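ok so for the tutorial part 2 we go from a plain amino acid sequence to predicted structure tokens. step 1 is just haveing the sequence, like this:
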Amino acid sequence: MKQTALSALVVAGLAGSLFGAALQPAAAETTAKVENLATWDRSALQKGWSARALLQRDVYGPGGNEIGEVEDILVGPDNKIRGIIVETNAFLDIGDVHAEVAWDKVSAGPEADSVSIPLTKETLENWYIDRDDRNVKRAWRVDELIGDTVSLKDVRGYGYVDDVIFNDNGEIVSVIVSARYGGRYGYGAGYGVGPYAYPFYGYNYGWTPGLGYYNLPYGRTEIADYEPYRYERKGPFQNR
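step 2 — the prediction. this is what the tokens look like for a chain of 240 residues:
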């Protein structure tokens, strides 16, 4: 009896691992405005900058010395950038530490695509990380969105979030999605791999950071003729 029960549990576990991806949450109902892709103005994207172009970039202190790298980007519930999370081991003999630096304290660095911040050994303790985890709509890290599995209203596993585009005001204007040709489960849709630029809906469409899923409010027919978006991964200070 025990062996039979154990076998059943093993089978159930294997089934969960094989088909769990198909059990993604369906897109939530929303009252938020949904952009018509045929008329959506993508000109703002050309003036924007790429999150991936900032991640892992070198960070310099006020003395011009390299002190670490950009580990992540922190975004508020209003979809605007709050700051960057810097990984550094330049000040203490305890290994890597992390500091949150407000976005208005970040400027262009001395090297291409690098940034400068006013972080010193004396001020390190002031740059603590506060992720508002007690709030329902909390601040979140960009790496909680990049890599999320993307689903359509009628296609699950359509693709994944590959990048995030901010405008010069630090607000997210788009997510860049790489699609799996034909759909993950063989739906045979006519879309290619992309990449595709879609409006960002975030909390307004039921997205929750950290769950690994991002639902788009469109169906297969709405994206059938949607053109891929080719873009240059520019950093936040290349337009200035």
